[in-house]
Amino acid sequence: MGALVKRNFLIPLIISFSFTNIISQQNVELVGSLNPNPGSHYSDIWGYTDEAGREYAILTGWDKVFIVDLNDPQNPALISSISVPGTVWHDVKTHGKYAYVVTDGGGDGMKIIDLSNLPNSASLVKTYNFDFLSAHNIFIEDGFAYVIGAGSVGGMFIYDLSDPVNPQLTSEYTHSNYIHDVYVYNDTVYAAAASTYDVVDVTDKSNPVKVSASAAIPGIYAHSGWMTEDKKYFFATDEFNVRDIIVYDLEDRTNWEVVLPSWQFPTGTRVHNLFIRGNYAHIAYYESGYVVLDIENPETPFIVGQYDTYPGEGDDFSGAWGAYPFLPSGLILVSDTNTGLYVLEFTPADPAPYIINNTDFDAVLNTDPVEISAQVFEKGIVTDVNAFYRTVINGNKGEWRLTEPESKSGDTYFFAIPGFDHLTTVEYYFAAADDSNQVTSLPPGGSGLDPAGVNPPGSYFSYQVILAGTPIITSFEPSAFDTTVIKPNPVHFLLEGVDTTDLDVTVKWYVNETFRINGKSFRYSSAFVQTPKIDTVKAVLTNGYKSVEKKWIVRVENPTSIEDGITITTFDLKQNYPNPFNPSTEINFSIAEVGFVNLSVYNIIGEKITELVKSEKSAGSYSVNFSADGLPSGIYLLRIEHPKFSKTIKMNLIK
Predict the structure, then answer these.
(1) Which helix (H) or strand (E) holds 646?
(2) Under a CB-based contact definition with an 8 Å cutoff, are residues 360 and 373 in contact?
(3) Distance in angstroms (rounded) separating the CA atoms of residues 55 and 76
(4) What are the pLDDT digits (tens) for 224-246?
């Protein structure tokens, strides 16, 4: 088997799942819909069933809560609309004959809506605003309301609802990071707390106790989650399109064991809210609409249903916001941010086989045969499993060739692909069929029987055969390896080279072993260096497999004239360099007098990512390096604060 070079994934392993076609409707039928206020923005959805068994939808809009009768689900009928503060974020839950609505951003507390007069009408009976005005979410369990993302630190308020219209505060919990949402069961709160997921024991409602927290995962935002019905597994969603769904084994609630590092929808859209009923996860997946996963095996979920409520184009947060699956009738209620309420019916069907690719390398470093493998899951009987491969040499594509499994272990099938010459690209895909003649390929799109998958999909997995040599440096500047520079003058560096095995080369620049930029040239700035100082500048020429390097010593000395003096008389935060950057950038700032300095990085929605400086500084100029490893591409805000100065700039991360 050939030496393999793994792909450089952002996370330990992104598992790819296959279903027959990526389509906008699968095992889900539209029953009815209602857009009660065209042009409005909608957010949360919840369901309610009265004592007679009549079902209702509670839909939140920009500045209204809509109570909708589902007695004729093909024709949902608006009963009442109740005013709430106008904003994007509302959340609603029910308890007894009441609905409770909270608002984030410009809120005025919690609205309590009386549902006892349905189907005739619903009415606002109270606005509770004694302890908080704004909150992001609410969860109600066993007679207690958990108001989330509230108060000065975005914590959790717990209320006793024994008197439904006069909630009694039992405690305020503030020992986690900002809490975005929770799931509560049996006196345990599972909190999505910004960078971690936390377990909080609320057996004593007057004294919540934090039990454990998951490891912080770079790049994600702990958004929400739900427990499986056996209360063993927690399905967490991150919303920032980094991992989408992470599955934890929480049988021991002190140990957040990751059993599935990531599950992502094939089209790359953002996930929002997820709810679990039985063996299915019902998900509002923004621009991909309503998505259903079979989670009978929580470690290998697969798609069994979809209905796209938003087939158009838009920003990343358009489409399905919420999906409520708990009505006794089994009907699904979905809220779409643009078009309101959808009443859907999900009918599970016999799924086709689904495949996981266990092969995560993109290069083979010799000409030996290569082993690839895949897991194939099927509720019925798997009748045929194959892999197909072809070569691409200088852009010329060969014919597809079939290779059958050489061996099998459990659900895993192993295949052998012959060895090939240097710079040969090998493309491949997997296919499987079941006893109902349903065929699945991975990547999706393949079809055909005899053999299964004989008609290839439109995209493929691939690796390249690389017999890498060592690159050669052809020129460099400066020629002297020990350079003295007078502050604030720069030093310009250049390095060029070629590869002996026809591979592309790049040059990476480092200062004191800290990566700065990619490119043939590098400008060393001494303007903000605390003199005197000696730095090491290093250039690494690499073809991705083998490297050579060149080093210089830079000695920075003080200017000799009064005119060139370095006394700092102004405050300033300069634009980061380089900008755009990937993955690191240099930040320079100056302060005119001693004081406490906070230099922090925020994402575009104002959430703090990291603090680069948090200490008292003397007057002077400073340089700080910011590394964005693990962060997604986008605009980030850099803000400096001093008792006599503040400033914010934008930094553009492009990966």
Answers:
(1) strand 645-653
(2) no
(3) 10
(4) 999 999 999 999 999 888 899 99
